[in-house]
Design brief:
homodimer, about 190 residues, mainly alpha, Arc Repressor Mutant, subunit A, Tetracycline Repressor, domain 2, 2 domains, 10 helices, about 70% helix, DNA-binding
Chain lengths: ~190, ~190
DNA sequence: CTCCGACTGTCAACGTCGTTGACAGTAGGA
DNA sequence: TCCTACTGTCAACGACGTTGACAGTCGGAG
């Protein structure tokens, strides 16, 4: 509803920005980038679509400013090497049903946009692959780190994008005990 | 896909359909679903945008009718169990630089569309997970099969969507010898 | 105090998108 | 010959992201 405010006091820019950002975060994480319109964000925030663009530059920039990849693996990455696989798989599995998992799916699907894809790639490189490279011993540390990331992101894809029923239904200890050895094949140095 | 019945048909109809389908396959695989407009497909095919819709129902149906996931793993899935991991990883790595890999990325990003996501999920379930389930021995065969698929699709994501430089640059034997043991941790029965 | 410039918000419009319906041309069967 | 079915064209619709002009409102300078 766009009835004019009964009290014509001017609102602070920061408050409106915040309302827009919150509405955008909500709608983007629910519906994804393409299916969320600037006009619907503006309506949810009680603002005008033109104002949304003026404040954030473009829909793409608004997406990047509001959708943030939760650092789900930050803590797990600090576990001792022998526990690392279990911690990483556990962190991934525990994302089932959370908003962070939906956000990952949304980001992955929006990665066709150049800026979004670059931003996502950077987050994975800096937040996941590089920390792994620093800790792995033995040959091919960089390739092994990239492949460990592929294993974890493949699991997140199965959960978030494809909705693999077997993986969504399985008990957490089962998934961890089955998948962790596969990560350990890359984490533990090859004799 | 399905030609009109051998009833009276104007000669150029099938040819026009074919030209549209070819232009669509080309543009979709190059630019993805969202960035390819029906009007650009029509222009590339020398046809009218309205005709494209009349022949294929909608842009989404045209996408599904023309973009097909190449059965890249069909042959590898028939390898003997001890060779399975090597064959599967080899098949994935050999997709580097091919159109089939681009198509996978395009499909993955378009999986926000309900029909596309469902179609992709079905292809992975029927073409990859179920064949694996039938061959795996030991406990949790279904979960292990889903996780093997996650490993392979995670690798394809890294190559097609994120463009992981380490994985794109690595020699094929390196990737195979490093990643195959990780798949074997799920393929070979647990004692 | 008034006046001014900066800021906040609104509105209409542009060009593009997917899609629809009406319409013209044409070929084959009656 | 007319009739019908099909192929292709055209203009238009509503929705989209984005832009520019414009109005209301405030803080501070004179």
């Amino acid at each position: 509803m766009q009835l004019p405010e009964s009290s014509p006091f001017q609102e602070s820019s920061a408050a409106t920005r915040k309302r827009i950002a919150e509405a955008a975060a909500q709608l983007f994480s629910e519906q994804g980038f393409e299916k969320t319109s600037v006009r619907s964000i503006a309506a949810a925030a009680g603002a005008d679509a033109a104002l949304v663009i003026r404040y954030f530059g473009s829909k793409e920039d608004l997406f990047l400013a509001t959708i943030q990849l939760h650092r789900a693996f930050e803590q797990a990455l600090q576990a001792p090497l022998p526990d690392l696989a279990v911690q990483l798989v556990g962190a991934a599995v525990q994302m089932r049903g959370t908003r962070a998992l939906r956000v990952y799916g949304v980001l992955m699907r929006a990665s066709g946009n150049k800026k979004v894809g670059h931003s996502l790639g950077e987050a994975i490189e800096d937040g996941m692959i590089q920390p792994l490279v620093k800790r792995l011993q033995g040959a091919d540390a960089r390739v092994r780190s990239s492949l460990i990331a592929a294993q974890l992101l493949g699991l997140l894809d199965a959960l978030a994008l494809r909705g693999d029923e077997a993986l969504l239904a399985a008990a957490e200890p089962t998934l961890v005990s089955v998948y962790a050895p596969a990560l350990n094949a890359l984490i533990l140095p090859v004799p």
